[in-house]
Automatic annotation (TrEMBL):
Name of protein: DJ-1/PfpI family protein
One Pfam match: DJ-1_PfpI
Gene3D superfamilies: 3.40.50.880
Organism: Mycobacterium deserti
InterPro entries tied to this protein: Class_I_gatase-like (IPR029062), DJ-1/PfpI (IPR002818), Prot/Nucl_acid_deglycase (IPR050325)
Domain DJ-1/PfpI: 11-171
Length: 206
């Protein structure tokens, strides 16, 4: 039986892109294919509810300024219009604290632009929606951009908006939650619709 023994923090803000983190949150919370469950804690800049891009109202559990790497096993940063408006400094600052402490940060789509503006991608291999998207931030890390669905460089996980399944797999792999075979089966089933991958996932539940 999986036990609730780890904590992941999810940054939330208006227009949060629901689909980008859905797979990852579901697997962390349930541990259905990994045997390890996480307490998912939503963190925001204020105590006010936010509304996601899909129209779902969410209430934060804590403030981003109150959360430190010692409290967490993972910081998840979804995309959202906030990042493209040049905002999100509090979340980028938290990402810096986590990375400096060796705690993984998983950023997808717009969040990668926020990390780029903060200089956190200048020396780390990464990906995003497109190289041109990050280049528009004026960052200095273009030489480290890789055109892949998801990229892991040490404690940093990045992906573009078209890759929520690969983002989930990359994060689970970085956290050591599943074997390469299970992760391949997960991507096969949820990204490619390969029904033959299900027995591998079913076996991982035992």
């Amino acid at each position: 039986m999986a036990t609730l023994n780890r904590t992941a923090h999810l940054g939330i803000y208006d227009t949060l892109a629901d689909w980008e983190v859905g797979y990852l949150l579901a697997e962390l919370r349930t541990g259905r294919f990994t045997g390890t469950r996480y307490d998912v804690v939503a963190v925001a800049e204020s105590r006010e509810p936010i509304t996601t891009m899909g129209g779902v109202r969410m209430l934060p559990d804590a403030l981003i300024g109150e959360v430190g790497p010692a409290d967490s096993d993972l910081l998840i940063l979804p995309g959202g219009e906030m990042w493209d408006d040049g905002q999100g400094e509090a979340f980028a600052a938290a990402a810096r604290r986590f990375l400096d402490a060796g705690v993984p940060v998983a950023a997808i789509c717009g969040a990668t632009a926020g990390l780029a503006r903060a200089g956190l991608l200048d020396e780390r291999t990464h990906t995003s929606a497109a190289a041109e998207y990050l280049a528009a931030t004026g960052y200095s890390g273009g030489a480290h951009y890789i055109d892949q669905r998801a990229v892991v460089d040490g404690d940093l996980i990045t992906a573009g908006p078209q890759s929520p399944v690969q983002f989930a797999c990359a994060a689970m792999g970085r956290l050591g939650l599943a074997s390469p075979a299970v992760l391949e089966a997960y991507e096969g089933l949820f990204a490619r619709g390969d029904a033959g991958a299900f027995p591998v996932l079913a076996a991982a539940q035992t």
